[in-house]
Structures are given as C-alpha cells and as structure tokens.
Amino acid sequence: MIQETYIDFSFPHLQWPAHVNLVYPFVAPEQLPRAQQQIREYLAENLDQETPINIALVQAGAFIQKNNMNVYLTDNGGEDVDSPLVSLRTIVLRALGQGPARSTAHLTVGQTQGNPLISQSYLLRKARLLPDMRFRVGTLAILIRERTTGTLSTDHMRLYGTIDIGAPSDIWRPHSSDYWVKTPNSNLPTLQSDSDGGQQEIISDDHEVLAEPALCFDSTENKWSAYTDGDKGQTGIRELTVSSYNVLVDTEYPPDHDRDPLIVSTILSNSAEADVLVLQEVSDDFLSYLLRNSPDVMQIAQRYPFVSHGPPCQNDLGPLPSLRNVVILSRYPFSWHSVSFHRKHKSALIAQFNGVATSSSVESEGLVVAGVHLTAGLTDGSVATKKSQMRTLTRYLERHYKRESWVVAGDFNLVTSTYTIDLSVKNQSISSETVSTLSAIEDEIREAGLSDAWSVARVEGVDQTSATESGDLFEGEEGATFDPQNNRLAAGTTTTSHDRPQRYDRILFKPQESLRIVHFNHFGVPEMIDGEQVVASDHYGVRARIQSTDAAVSNDVNKDLSSKQLIIEHRRAAGVLADTTSLHSVLETHGMFPNEKQAGEWRDAFASLQNVLLGTSEDSNQAQPDIPLVIVPVGSYALGVWTADSDIDCLCIGTISSKTFFKLARQRLSKAEIQGIRILRKVEASTGTMLELSVNEILMDLQYCPAPQIVERWHEFRNIPASDPIFNLSVLSLRKLKPYRDLLYIQRTLPSLPAFRLAYRCIKLWAVQRGIYSAKFGFLGGVHITLMLSWVCKKLGHDYGSVTAADIVTSFFHHYAHFDWTNDIVYDAIYHKKRPRYYRSTREPMVVLGYHAPNSNIAHTATVPGLKLLVKAFRNAEQQLCEPGITWETFFGAPSAPRQELNIPHGVADFLHAYNNFIKIDMQFWGRTLAKGKSLVGWVESRCISLVIDIHKAIPNSEVQIWPARFADSDSKDVDDGKDYQGCYLIGLSKAEKTASAASAEEKQVAKQALDKVLDRFLTQLRTDEKNFDPNISWIDASLVRSSEVRDLQLDDREWGIYATELDSDSDDEEDIIDEDTEDADDTKPQRAIPQCPKPTSKPLSSTKLRPASDVLNRLRWDPSLDPSDYIIGYEDRFLGAKETGLEKWKTEQTDEEFIPQHRILYFKRKGGEDGRGDIVWERATRIDKIFGSGLGNGD
C-alpha cells in the first residue's frame, strides 16, 4: 500500500524506493567500506539482536522543500529520544563518532509540485487514510546517489550494501541493487512523448502480475475483507449484465458531497442494475460514502457483495491510488489487478470471473472485464496518448487472455461527433493526422476482435437508449453519453469548444463466438423536478445485457450473417473524400437539403392536411377528432431525406371502411379548397385507392388502412412485436401498414441516422444525375436506396462500429458493384436471421426485400437492361472514387448546366451524346379535360418499361436506356393555352460494350426488322386500348431516330398539378381492381342486413365470414413456422375441371404465363395424412378454415 501511494504521488519513485533516512548525508563514497564495517561492529557490540526493533508509522505530516511539499508518515515519537527510529539513528551516529543531532525520521509518501494549497490538503488527507504501518527492522541499507549520463541525465539511487541488525528471521536480502525499478520488455516499442503533458507513454510491462482477490462484505463485522473462497468458480452463469458509469469528481479538495446521494440512487435504480458495475472517477470520499457511510450501504452490499476496492475510511484498507479511480463492483467473486499505462494516475483494472460466460467448446477460465478511463481532451497529444493506452490494453489482453471472452467498459473519452472533429481541424486545434489517429483507434479496437455493444444492439433492435431528436444530431452523436446541450453538469465540464453530444462511454466485448448482446440502455439521464434539472453526473451510464451461448449454436445462428454474400467490406473514403464537411457542402450546392423556409412549408402543409382530415383546426377547441383516425408521414419525408422536389406520402389509419373514408375525405378536402388544398387525382390500383393532393403547392399522396385495433393501441404501436395478434389483418391492410412499420424499424436500428441521411442524399444525387433514379422505369427508387443502404449501414455498424457517411457511400458502391444479382437477393440478415423464403420469377432480375409481412420484391419493376445499366453505373462510381485526387466536386460535377440556352443538366446532356440512335415515343394531346391529359401521359409512361424489355429481347446484344423524364420541343406550349401539347420519351440504343466485333450489314438489317416489329406491336397495343387512348383528342407514335434529331430537345418541366374538377378514377396498374370490401372485411363491423330465409342445406350456416383464399395463401407462404412445400392448392381449371398443384408453384403475377385468378382456388390441403390424400386446411365449399379459424373453423 505504501509503495503504491509512493509511486503514484512521488516524482522520484523510479530513482529510489520508499525509505526512512537515518543518516543523510552519510560519508564520502571512498569511505563506504570502512564506515559499513565500523557500523556493523559497533551495532554488534551495543545492540541486543534478540530484542526486536518495532516501528509504527502512524502519523502523517508535511514539510516544504524547495518548491515542493513533501507528505510523510512518522511514528508518534517524533524527536523523542525514546522513539525507536531516534534511538537507532543515535546509535549509528555514535558508531561514526558523531553526537546526537535533531531530526524527524519519516517515510515520504508523496510530493506536490508548485506548492498549491489544494494539492497539499488533498495529498495530506490521502496520507492520513493510509493504514498504520508497523514493521520490524532487521536490516539497514546503504544507498549511493549517482547521476546518469546521456541526454536525459537524472539522479539515481543504487543499493551499495546492507547491515544486518536483527534476528535471522528479520533479515532482508534484495534480489538486485535497483530492485525498485521495473524493466520494460525490450521487445515492446516505446511511444513518443506526449506534447501536452510531457509524460512518456510506454507499453505496459509484460511481467507477472499477482492478482488480488475481491473484497467481500462481512455483515457480521460490518466491514469489507478479502474474499478467501476465490478458487470456487461460478458455473452455469449464461447471462451477465455489465454497467459503466462515470460519477464525476468535481474538485480535488475540499470534496463536494452534494451529489453523492443522487449518484447512489442512480446506481441502485432499476435501469442501472447489473451483475458487474464499472465506475470511473471514483474518489476516496465518494467510495467511503458508497460502501460505508451511505444510508443505502446495505442495499449496495446486497446487490454488489464483491468490490475491487473497499472504503478508504476503513482502517485496514487505505486510500485509492489516484484522485479519479476505476472501481469494479460485482454480484460474483473475482480476482483483479492493474495494468499501468505508465502515465501518472492512468491504468486499466482487469477483473476475471472464473466460470462466468464460458463456452463448452472454447477452453476458457472465465470472463475478463477491463475497466478503463482514458485521457481526456481533443488535442494532438491527448489523442496520441489515448491510442497508446488502448494499444497497451488490447495487447496485454491478447497476450494473457487469448482464449477468454472480454468485456472492456468505461469512459474512453473518444470524440465521436464529426462536427466537433471537422471544426477542430478547421480551427487548427488538431491536425489532420490526429483525425487519422482517431480512426486508427477504432481500427485497433476492431482488429483486437472487440465489438461495440451499443452499435450491435442498435442494429439488432435491442437498444433502448434515450437519444436527442435525430434531426438535431450530426454524425457520431447518436447514442451520446456526454451531452452538454441537455445535461447542465456536462455543459460545465466539456473539454471542447463546442457543446456537441459525444459517445464517450462504451461497453466493448470480444465474443469468442459465444457472447451476444440482448439489451442495451442508458441510465442516469436528467430529470425535471419542480422546474429544475436534476442529474447525478455529467455522463450517462451505459448498460448491456450479454448472453453466453455454446459456440456451436452461435455459429449455426450466425451462419447466414457471416456468409460470403452478406459480408460487406469497409471501404474507406480516400484523401479529401473523407471530409464530411466537403460532402455536405457539395450536396447543399446541388440543392439536396431543404432550407428552413421549405422545411416550415412542408411541416405546415402536413399539419393542414391532418387538421382537415381529422376535422380539427388549430383555432378550434376540439382536441379529439370526431372519427378515430391516425395520420402519419411515410417515405422520404418521414425518414428525413426529402428534397424540395419531393412529395409527402401520407398514411391514414382508421376504424371505418376504405369506401367511407375516401367519401368523407373527398368531402372535407373539397371544402378546404380555400386553405390551398386541392384533389388532383384519384388512383385505383390492386393495392387500393390513393388520392393525389396539392396542399399549398406541395404534392401529397394519401392512402388509407382500415385497422381499428391499431388505432386503439396506437400509443404503444412502436413497441408492439411483429408476432402480436394485432397484426392478424388482411393482406391489403398489412401491405398498407408495411411502409410505416419498416420505417420505424429502420429508424430504430440504424447506427447513425445522420450518416445514413447524408449517404442517402449522396446516392440519390448520383442516381438522378445518371438517369437511373426512377422505380417505375426499372431503376432505383427511394425505397430501393433506403433498403439497400440501410443494410450496408447496419452491417458496417455491426462489424466495424462507427462509420462515416463518406465511408458508407464508398462501401455501398463497392458492395453492389460486385453483388451477384442473378443468384442473391438483398435483404437485412440481422432482421430475417436466415435467408427469407422468396420465390423469384424469371421476370425478376433484381430482388430487394423489406422487413415486415407481406414480403414483396421492392424491385419488381427492374428489367434486365436496367439492371445492366445499374451494375455498370455502380462499377463506374467505384472506380471513380478510387482515382487519386478525386473530390466530391469532381464526382458530382458543377450544378450549372453546360448548355445554358436549353437548361439541360449534365446527366441529360451526357445521355443525349452517349447514343447515336434513339427510340422516340411521341405523345400529343389537344383535349380540354386536363385530368385525361395527365392520365394519357401516365398511361404511356407505364407502358414504356415493357417496350424496353421487348427491345432488349429482340436485340440481346444491345444496351437499352430510357431516360426517366419527358422531353419537349423548345417551342412546345402549355396545355391550358388551348394549343397542342407534344412531348416524348427517349430510349437510347447502342451496342453492348462486351460485343466482340462490329455487326455486319445483314445483322443490322435483321436487328432493324426485329426493332420495327417491336415498335409496331407496341403502337398497336396502345392505339387499340379504347379505355386509355382516344384518337379524337390524342396521338401516339414510336420511331427510330438519329441523335441529331433529338439534341435540341429540352426537359419538359410542365407541372400537371392543375386542379381537376372531374375526379375520374385512373388506374396505374393493369391488374384487376380488388374490391375494397375484401380489404375491410376483417376490420369493420358488419352492417345489419335485411333478414332472408336461408336455402335448405345439410349444414348450418356460420355467421363468421370465411377468410379469403388470398389471406390463406399469404399465411402459408410467409409464416416462418409453416413450410409452403408441405401444402397443395386445389383449383378450378376452365377446361379440365378440378386440378391440384404445389403451393410453391402458384403464380400471383398476372403477367406470368401460369397465372390463375385466386377466385378459382377451391381448397388448400396438407400433403400426406393418414390415408395419403392429405388433410384439408381451407375449403371454400365447406367453409372449413383450420389456418385462421374463420368460417366453420375445423368443421366440427
């Protein structure tokens, strides 16, 4: 204990050991042999060796020497002649022929530099906490003070010899002449000096460390004492909860005790309860309060009966080694030791729990928990010091605990906010090399096999941290534990010049294939009480619940997650691309961020629509709507990635039927025309009805989902698990809810929503510029990018921790440029756990799946030529981002157009110059009904993708690209002027890049004939469609033209959002419109019908409606507990009568050649059965339903 205190608080501890001076100065070095012999002989004659010399150092004191204050221990005798130390000194002086001289024999335990009063009081107080030091003197030591040579010359004490004065049992023999100096392992490197503190950071000594047993609370003696049954390991512990909390030391001296009760209350709170608690910044006074003086000490001792350090106020324990200490409290016994970082008062606490979280297939003695508190600050020196400290710890753990699972918890003091880092570089507070050092620290953590518990819990959906509103955060601020903006104590202790949130506190774990995170949360967050903020510390605590599983089971569970096709390589953005500020600035230049005015307008527009549909208003006293409805945004606006040209997708959930809702909505919206709300179009499709609206010139799409139970439990909807019976809805209702449920899951599990948003805008701008952003034309859409990007973000966060937006973009392009689109599908393996059962058709070259049921391919409109263009674009982007000196400005180009006279963007100009031949699809409209004009354009637009497919089939060795926008002649006039409107779509044609040789004249002629046939068939289909094409008011044509004929075209920027008084329903889907009564059947109460006499039947009629075949089909397909290959569908063939086919072979796509309408399904049955004929699980004729229990249920 004395030596530890001496090392921590005495500057020359490496030059000489802790000692008590008897005679100093002694004699000249050349007289040492004679003096030694003279003293030995004199003591042998005048000192009774049978009488022990017992010393008791029990009193602390201090004296000033030069500019330093020395704190020491001495005996009670002081200068009294009866003091054993004084008596021994007098005898030695007499042996040398000297008389007695006044002196206070003492043992120096510490020094303070500069003589500051606070440090003096603090160190003297710590010395008084030392236990009484009692020992028997058996040997006197002779030390020689020497000065070392070289650039760093210092004074150094060397042991010259000893004089034995006691009994043989009391004699001491040193093993070396400088035993107090620890020699570092010569094989380990020495780090450079820290420019801030002048301290040298050295890799930890690799010497044998003697572990100390934990202290255990003895309730009978009411004290903490060493645990003596340490060899009894804990067995069968498969789950462990670890918490970490920085309790904040306010001042050195005098200590502030005001927060102590609040800290203890926080530690005992349910949200902080753990099996292992790692505390940082623990002072002597607080630990004495926590483990000795607190009213809750018994509760603390019951919850954490084992501690690494006991209360310093206990007489036999002594003080903590530093002002700010790491202390571990535990429910289970452990042994521990320190690993010094060779920086004053900095070390890691290593605790091992025998038998805890061990795996049967991995040789392990037990879980290792390391508590850390790295150097604070954001300077070049402090960041370099943090790197060396982290390297010291990880290398030590790798050498000594290679087979054990690790948990490293504490305050890492690593700045995570990219805003703070970028601004510090801009202000020259840190260098760019320091930014690289911060990244290198994260890399070393990952290379050591450590995973961030928060990142893993976040992406796996088991994180319950309370975070700041995501819209207010920058990258690296999600999950912050130090938040000066919302924590008044943090605002007073922040070491940066900005008040941005930082995720300083972490729990890292090395699973060794047997650990997984099942829960993560914060505790100790601020609360408002009587209008004042109450918070215990400037840091929030973090807690992780960790489960230990058998390695074989763990490998089986994570088989899909680690498979080759699901590995996403972390590709770092090189050079200036890594500058997030530069990326943000370029995107802002290209208009990818809405300004404050636009944000307010969009917000007000959504609020206006809400008020109108709910029947409330801001001025009205009516707080609740007259009809229970919930209106939420979905899509890009809800995700926070919208731009000024985005519309707002709205979903309304209510208790009434769809027909009633849209009738009511049209009435209320029509009355709200004075508020700037206009109905543009009513769209009928297989997925239900949708209204296209304009609210103060902002476009909105409104859809409705009838789900009374959802509305009733809306306040808890975010936390309802997918397995809850509340989601036992019709397929159409589930399909309407799916976007919002997927949105909530994405928001909840993204490691960094700000980084995702920045990366999303980057990829969207890239796709828009290259003409590959349009889902209806078979390219990327907003949902495509969201699902593809979210998987990349989550996998990178899961495997690598914090990743910047620039790195995410680079990794995104690399991953999908090499993705096997033919055999693999894009899905979130963390959510699905194993590859989803999705049966792709031959018409689906690209499959991107979402999350919740019903699972459908988001990329169902993708085409083979479109996918080829996407892959080509991905690879070009990957190559471009790897070019030396590339910048974001170069990657995106200037926002201004090269052809100013026509105002054509770069991407359009490149498209027009990239192809020599184009298919030009002309449209002309001269009717007066504007709704029909828009309908014509939309109808032709929806058929263009089929033309692209047919062209590629007819000319396989060609590259076919349609630009996802209309073109018009420069002299084209608006429709509402009463003159002709003419626009067109362009499809570029060229030879595929991989074509080996030029086509012959004959081959060209064959291709031309095939193309003419495709165009003729396309025009015939359009012109013969009487429902959508009227030759009296419109005209359509498709022709092959040269590039010279289209170079003068410009983009058609005509807005079709003109108020249409005639709300004719338009269909955007060629499928038959499903009766909305089917959608509402399970969600609305049946209306009373006129009683009728039923026809005679052999079976009684059931009042319960039979679930439709579509519901049963989807349940059998998507329920993970059911196997579709076990079921057969019986159906009515129009020519052959009743037939059967396997459920897996059933086609639901109307364009499929084997498509059969679902109303022809007769029954579903399970294969096999007692008679081999199979068991009927659903039958239309008998109204049996063993799947949902509707109709007659089991038929009993």
TrEMBL record:
Record-annotated MJ1316 RNA cyclic group end recognition domain positions: 1106-1180
Domain Polymerase nucleotidyl transferase: 630-660
Entry keyword set: ATP-binding, mRNA processing, Nucleotide-binding, Nucleus, Transferase
EC number: 2.7.7.19
Transmembrane segments: none
Annotated region (Disordered), positions in chain: 475-499, 1077-1105
Gene Ontology terms for molecular function: ATP binding; poly(A) RNA polymerase activity; RNA binding
Endonuclease/exonuclease/phosphatase domain location: 244-539
GO biological process: mRNA processing; RNA 3'-end processing
Span of domain Poly(A) polymerase central: 756-879
Localization (cell): Nucleus
Pfam families listed in its UniProt record: 2_5_RNA_ligase2 (PF13563), Exo_endo_phos (PF03372), MJ1316 (PF04457), NTP_transf_2 (PF01909), PAP_central (PF04928)
Compositionally biased region (Polar residues): 483-496
Family membership noted in the UniProt record: Belongs to the poly(A) polymerase family.
Protein name from the UniProt record: polynucleotide adenylyltransferase
Species whose genome carries this gene: Alternaria tenuissima
Lineage: Eukaryota, Fungi, Dikarya, Ascomycota, Pezizomycotina
